[in-house]
Structures are given as structure tokens and as C-alpha cells.
Design a protein that fits this description.
This protein is α+β, with helices and mostly antiparallel strands. It has 4 helices and 7 strands; from the N terminus they run αββββββαααβ. About 25% of the residues lie in helices and about 35% in strands.
């Protein structure tokens, strides 16, 4: 009980992905169970594949760096509420669609249950990259 109270006072725990997109490159660091995929050439590279899932921020986490990678293609960042409940091939197909807003809506609906709820928390960002 004391450790739970101490954690509450310190702000709790969280997964985190931090990205920097600059000078024609993507780089960042991550920890936890959210993921960041770089969609390119009909496939993807999981930029967060090397991250640790535990401990989380607020509990001694050591984020793992990734990159730099060229700032081209598309990025999909999402919580485990998407990645744990949706088919990978279906996610790539939808995320690669030409209408990015429609693709984001369809991705968010993938794990939706018949009653309209989601089985877990869900947050996602789908972003086009341009090398400038």
C-alpha cells in the first residue's frame, strides 16, 4: 500500500515514444508497450522493436534509442490497444491507404468489439513524412 501511495505522489508509470524529425531523418527513443512503425515499400520497420517493456517511465525505465532513418514514407505510432488486437497485414494495408484521415479512422476501428467498445486503451498517430 505504501509503494502504491508513493507512486501516486510521483505521478505513476507510463509508456513513451519520443520522436525527432529533422534534417531529413527520424530518430527517437521509446520504452513500454506502444510501438512506432515506419511504413515503407509496402512493408514496415518496427522502430521500437528493441525497447524494454518494463520498467516504465516513473519506475526506473531506460528508454532505448532508434534511428536515424530517412524521413520518407509514413509513420504509425499506437498503443498496445491496436497492436495486440489487430492483424499485422490488415494494419499495414489500411495504414498504407492514400487517404490518411480515412486510414486513421479505419485503424482505430480494427480492434473495436461488437458492442462498440475497445478491449484496451487505444491511441494512434498516422503521419506522412516528407524529406525536405
Amino acid at each position: 500500500m505504501e509503494s502504491e501511495q508513493a507512486m501516486y505522489c510521483l505521478g505513476g508509470q507510463a509508456a513513451c515514444i519520443i520522436l525527432e524529425i529533422a534534417n531529413h531523418t527520424i530518430q527517437g527513443a521509446s520504452v513500454g508497450d506502444s510501438e512506432c512503425w515506419w511504413l515503407v515499400d509496402g512493408g514496415f520497420v518496427d522502430l521500437t522493436a528493441g525497447q524494454t517493456h518494463k520498467p516504465l517511465l516513473g519506475d526506473g525505465a531506460m528508454p532505448v534509442a532508434f534511428g536515424p532513418f530517412p524521413a520518407v514514407g509514413r509513420l504509425l505510432l499506437a498503443t498496445d490497444g491496436l497492436f495486440n488486437y489487430a492483424d499485422i497485414d490488415h494494419m499495414i494495408e489500411i495504414a498504407s491507404g492514400s487517404d490518411i484521415e480515412e486510414a486513421a479512422r479505419r485503424l482505430a476501428d480494427l480492434p473495436r468489439l461488437p458492442n462498440g467498445e475497445w478491449p484496451d486503451d487505444l491511441g494512434l498517430i498516422l503521419a506522412d513524412l516528407e524529406s525536405s
